Amino acid sequence: MDVNLEGQLGGFKVSMPIIVGSMGSTAIASKFSLEIARAAAKAGIIMGIGENAATVRGYSRRYTRGHPSFKERLMAYLTNVDKYGGVIIQQNVEDAYDELWNKVYSDKDVEPYIEEGLIGFEIKMGQGAKPGLGGVIKIPREEAIRLKAKYHFEIDPEKVKDKFITRYSVPGTYTEDILRGMIRFMKTAYPRARIWIKLGPTGTLIGSLA
Q: What angle do CA 28, 17, 22 make, to 5 degrees?
């Protein structure tokens, strides 16, 4: 209790060098996301919001019963943060189609927190929990039918009676030039956001590139 662990981590002031990793739209992560967000904010540690959260659960309006929208999760953290912490937000290919980062960066409710330096955007170069770079999970058939136009399914969810269907996100591809261009774009388009890079099983590259 007599040890001071506060410091700087990836451009954020933190109470201790701990991060709640970026969890996306999976049922377990979504169900408890508000409690996790509030706890992380009150503890003064960084929290990530993973890919597909906005696309699957909705940006500000709930798409699925019992699951908070992306913005509910984000604001549950931001409205409970004190002098430490920050949020990093992933955007995969499907999220980019819906312009997630643009929505966040232009959201009037989020603007004060961007101005305070509490928002970061995370590029995902590697995936530690699932094969490849794309999110692969099983989702309820009804949800698969709703999302069939945005995600890849090996079978048409409308033509089978399976209770759960495997959903595939488009895998991101990064060469040195693509990564360099992506970072340049992010620094230009979102100059007030921290830039993070997720490296899969080796963790996240710590350090603000903004």
A: 25
Q: Measured between alpha carbons, how far is residue 201 from residues 129, 170, 183 in Å?
A: 8, 19, 21
State the Cα–Cα distance between residues 35 and 160, nearest whole angstrom.
36
- What pTM was estimated for this model as a whole? 0.83
Q: What are phi and psi of 147, to 5 degrees?
A: -100, 5
Token pair, residue 26, equals 């999976």
**pLDDT, tens digit, for every residue of 65-124?**
889 999 999 999 999 999 999 999 999 888 888 999 999 999 999 999 999 999 999 987
Q: Which residues of 28-48 are buried (b: 16+ CB within 10 A; e: fewer)?
A: ebbeebeebbbbbbebbbbbb
Q: At what angle do helices 33-43 and 70-78 cross, to 10 degrees?
A: 20
